[in-house]
Amino acid sequence: MEYRSLGNTGVHVSSLCLGTDNFADPTSAEESSRILNVALDAGINLVDTGDVYADGEGEKIIGQTLKDNGKRHQTLIATKVDHGRRRPGYLVDDPTLFGPNDHGHSRLNIIRACENSLRRLQTDYIDLYQIHRPSPDIPWDEQLGALNDLVRQGKVRYIGCSTHPAWAVMDAIMVSELKNYARFVCEQPPYNLLDRRIENELIPLCQKHGLGLVAWAPMAMGVLAGRYTSTQDFPENSRAALRGGFYSDRVTKQGIEVGMEFAKLAQRIDLSPAQLSILWVKDQPGITAPLIGPRTVEQLESLLPVKDMQLDDETRADCDALVPPGSVVSDFHNTADWMKMQVTWATK
Asked: 189: domain range?
């Protein structure tokens, strides 16, 4: 396993990291635990979760598994404090159970959410605590001040953000510098061959200011793996079928067409489309690691060989021909209000 520096921290993370959005939704606790153990045995050392994942059940599975296997201090846990209410269809889907201050990035909720995550994870510290999507109505001074206190208390080692625009990341860096607060060490954006917009501003920003980039949705939710053939009839147990909404909106005609051509590229170099999609992200400039989020142990084991591969220049150029650098054919920023009016479809 190759290990890469997480920004300027000196912390080294595996070139493949484990995403756990499937834990407890739909993957069972038992299978989720097996996935985590196999990943750790393979050398993966960064495990990403969030307080919104299955309403905290994902964190519980991770905490119990690490308690059982004794590998907590060999494992870097990244979790998040969500910006809004729980997503529809999750384990708790009753808005009456949540008050007006039980979500979001106020100081009140950041500290409370951290305490709740620590309890569910059965640990006394979180290695990387991330602001999950922007809260433009809450000043950075409020958000970073709370995060800084958590770092000083030893409850959080490092802080980061997820799915933020480049200008917001720069704002946060500026406030941290001015106020001597803890500084973001990484951003976690969506990034795959179908949505390359972070190459325009976010990646150069992170490279210049020493932030890591841990990318989610590297397989484009399975579109690049050949899982979808229609924008209407979704495979059983796919995210588009199970969750609908912004998940199904990501399955576009243009994306499916690119996915079919991408599968031919993968076949040419004797890889599965899923493997090539992960490899492409892993070896893009500025990327620390892609998050792989398997639903089964078998899916995980099929992706692990990518850790020992390198993307060749010819294949990289062929991928660029399918979707030019900086462009987009499927909107994976569709949960980000700041990006909704900035979609420019790539043309051949």
From this structure: 3-339
